[in-house]
Inverse folding.
């Protein structure tokens, strides 16, 4: 057993992933969390595990994570663009994972960590200089999702709703709705400089979009939900011997705002770096840089053309068709060159404007 106790700041996905993998290697682990429990970052909502078309538990097992949590899949979507609405089927199902609450992924990981004798200290405001792994989540607001939860009496439970319309989600961002139990979550996702408008634009969409009006009717939201995040490419994720994981390091997808895989995988990497004496920076760069480059090149296109690009991509699609989600990837030597040009241009845009 390693003599040193590893201290982790933050009991979110990345901190819990690190804690479990350390404990599996007989390391003493203490996790400090400023809230009074795990899964308290927001009220219940459901999020997609980016890039995975298999059961989430199969993916999580590869990271030594075996939590119990609520998850379900959907393969039918009411897809809305700036010019039309369609009822479509996805080639692969989307798996949605509960975030927030007792049935959340966070809570399931917490229970696994407890079974491995990880020690948790809640309601703790600990300085980063006192810990070995920093898993505190986003350090600034570059993206945000504002959502409202309603009683659901009309929306089909085997569908979700996805809308790309600059009137409500500018510059190619999106609004979605997911049913669960007897409720439905409506969420508007935006990056800066539009974050402060997320609530107003969601209300506007509810007022103007027929499908959302039918869901909401005269009902008031049961509760609100949401969160914020940041995406960056750090020069290093190791500072003064401390390992930064998840969004504390800036690991998030700037294309659609996904962050779960980055959080879970970087947590395991940090644990492996400690227990196996590996180079953490080399590990995350090898794993994440190709994904980040591809996502930033796609973000440039959506920033330039917004919802009009989605309209163009789906101009030959009609109701009843089966589709893939937007990837916008380019392949081959010429494709790699173009991708790098788009990536470098997006980095330049970020330096000039301050926004992805």
């Amino acid at each position: 057993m390693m003599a040193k106790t590893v201290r982790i700041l933050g009991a979110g996905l990345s901190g819990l992933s690190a804690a479990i993998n350390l404990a599996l290697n007989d390391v003493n682990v203490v996790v400090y969390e400023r809230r009074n429990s795990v899964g308290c970052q927001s009220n219940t909502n459901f999020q997609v595990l980016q890039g995975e078309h298999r059961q989430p538990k199969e993916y999580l097992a590869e990271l030594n994570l075996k939590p119990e949590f609520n998850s379900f899949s959907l393969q039918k979507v009411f897809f809305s663009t700036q010019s039309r609405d369609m009822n479509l089927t996805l080639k692969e199902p989307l798996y949605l994972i509960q975030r927030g609450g007792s049935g959340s992924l966070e809570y399931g990981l917490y229970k696994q960590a407890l079974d491995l004798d990880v020690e948790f200290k809640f309601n703790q405001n600990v300085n980063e200089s006192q810990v070995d792994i920093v898993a505190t989540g986003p350090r600034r607001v570059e993206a945000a999702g504002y959502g409202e939860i309603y009683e659901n009496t009309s929306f089909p439970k085997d569908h979700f709703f996805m809308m790309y319309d600059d009137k409500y989600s500018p510059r190619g961002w999106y609004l979605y709705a997911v049913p669960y139990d007897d409720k439905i979550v409506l969420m508007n996702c935006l990056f800066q400089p539009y974050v402060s408008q997320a609530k107003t634009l969601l209300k506007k969409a509810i007022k103007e979009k027929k499908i959302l009006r039918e869901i909401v009717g005269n009902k008031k939201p049961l509760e609100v939900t949401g969160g914020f995040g940041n995406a960056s490419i750090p020069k290093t994720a190791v500072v003064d011997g401390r390992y930064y994981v998840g969004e504390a390091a800036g690991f998030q997808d700037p294309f659609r705002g996904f962050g779960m895989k980055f959080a879970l995988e970087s947590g395991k990497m940090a644990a492996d770096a400690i227990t196996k004496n590996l180079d953490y920076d080399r590990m995350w760069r090898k794993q994440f840089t190709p994904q980040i480059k591809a996502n930033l090149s796609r973000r440039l296109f959506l920033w330039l053309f917004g919802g009009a690009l989605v309209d163009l991509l789906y101009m030959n699609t009609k109701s009843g068709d089966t589709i893939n989600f937007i990837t916008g990837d380019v392949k081959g030597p010429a494709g790699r060159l173009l991708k790098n040009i788009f990536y470098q241009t997006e980095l330049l845009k970020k330096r000039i404007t301050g926004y992805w």
